[in-house]
Amino acid sequence: MRYLSKILDGITFTELQGSADVEITSITADSRQVKPGTLFVAVKGTQIDGHIYIEQAIKDGAVAIVCEDLPGHTAGEVAFLMVGNSAAALGILASNFYDKPSAKLKLVGVTGTNGKTTVATLLYQLFTDLGYKCGLISTVENKINGKIIPSTHTTPDPVALNGLLNDMVNAGCDYAFMEVSSHAVAQHRIEGLQFSGGIFTNLTHDHLDYHKTFENYLKAKKAFFDGLPKNAFALTNIDDRNGNVMLQNTKAYKKSYALKSMADFKVKVLEDQFTGLLLNIDGEEVWFKMVGMFNAYNLLAVYGAAMLLDQDKAKVLTSLSKLSGAEGRFDYVISPNRIIGIVDYAHTPDAVQNVLSTIKDIRKGTEKVITIIGCGGDRDKTKRPVMAKVACDWSDKVILTSDNPRSEDPAQIIKDMEAGVDPSNQRKTISIVDRREAIKTAVHLAQPGDIILLAGKGHEKYQDVKGVKSHFDDKEELIEQFKTVS
Questions:
Q1: Which one of 35, 133, 270, 336 is CB 3.0 to 4.6 Å from 278, fit for a cystine?
Q2: Could you tell me the pTM of the whole model?
Q3: Might you give the EC number(s) for this enzyme (predicted)?
Q4: Which residues carry a binding-site annotation for ATP?
């Protein structure tokens, strides 16, 4: 049995009305999930203020309310707890409700603009291959010992997150690896969690629709490291100009990785081909199935984390050499007439440039590179012209198309992208609103040996148009179109 008094550990409150000895059967910040015995936490969100639902929550059976502002009148049989920040309190309450599951396993968080999913997924695959029971919380999917739990957010809300971690503990997991998004930090979703380590991949232009400025975005990432305990590790990419910033105020022990700078963990790229990477990693030459300089960073981050978690070097390198990373990350297929298709989740200017520069490094030089690219609706508009410019600068042909337009007009999104196309690149650019038609056009423009990059959606299996998600899979569509050419 869970009583309110037992789950208030770590909560600073200014006022308590009613009894703290009330039994709590569930906890939520979503008024639609309230049922008899629920603790309802009224959070002031970016769109909705949960305080307006307090009365309804009580009608639906809430026995305790956590809020920043007490309502005009309080029901005598309901406990009211007044706090300074409900969102921060929710994370701690959720952790306490599930008996602090993050403290019962080794939890490692991965943050950065690009590479989070690949690093977290590789860590999950690696430690599973090493014989441990593991959990994964990622953009693509959540996993508990191989069992897949669908993912709805990069980092779930605190109640769902602690519920997942609790399920991992109950399943006997030794480790959990999770992506930590900047939204999750800013919205206090990771409050109350106890991390054994944190990894920083890189920081580039993204999410400015939410954070407003790059400095705010940087601060959100840094706050994750600021909160790490002294017995955790903080592993950062110091080739990134913001890498050392992450370590400035952390109490964790500081470690670094790099390809170009002096660092604790180093790697040298010996070969980079469509079939994989030959790396000299910590003095050992190893062939990896993954492709591209960005994956050299990802593999090095995973290797460094494994060493910091006291794993055997030889076993780690052997296991890593067999792994292929996350779905929809430089995922390639070849048509019967040898057109190469690459599906990648790259949805930031830097990520698109990384993929295209990798293709440039690997290609023989005679092939054309055709890039299909769009930008999501209801998201950061400032990156749209930049995305188009990068695609044009690094490709022989560019097709601007729809990604997930959501509530926006897809044609207008493409117009926003077109603003970034230099006059010298306009002749190589085509705008096709329908993504399926864009893929079909690219395949029919391509000659044997040419390379088609489908950027932006990666693992996603849907198109989000006006609130309706219909099935759409870039790789599936590409394979279908490949059947029409010979």
A1: 270
A2: 0.83
A3: 6.3.2.13
A4: 112-118
